[in-house]
Amino acid sequence: MTLLTRFDYGGLEFKTIDGSWAEVDPRPGSLVMNIGDIFSRMMDGRLKARTHRVIDIGTDRYAVPFFFTPRYDADIGVNFMEPEHRLELYGPWVLDVIKNREK
């Protein structure tokens, strides 16, 4: 999950379902939350992880990203939408995600 503060300038875009790019409207004082593939999986696909990009609009930006990756054998089988837990290991799951990712 990524939280981005919004400023009074644009440049953040996300890929829509049809493959086109749409701009996220700048709204000062708001936050944008991007979720990743694991969070989308834990929500049974009800929330989608979107490909996004930032367009250079000639304004300085600063980012401090932090990335976390579970161990290969970590159980990621929890699903917030289903009461029953099923074992699913991160390693095989992420390899499948990468293999089937859009080109």
Automatic annotation (TrEMBL):
InterPro entries: IPNS-like_FE2OG_OXY, IPNS-like_sf, Iron_ascorbate_oxido_reductase. Residues 2-70 form the Isopenicillin N synthase-like Fe(2+) 2OG dioxygenase domain. Transmembrane segments: none annotated. Pfam families: 2OG-FeII_Oxy. This is Isopenicillin N synthase-like Fe(2+) 2OG dioxygenase domain-containing protein. It comes from Dreissena polymorpha.
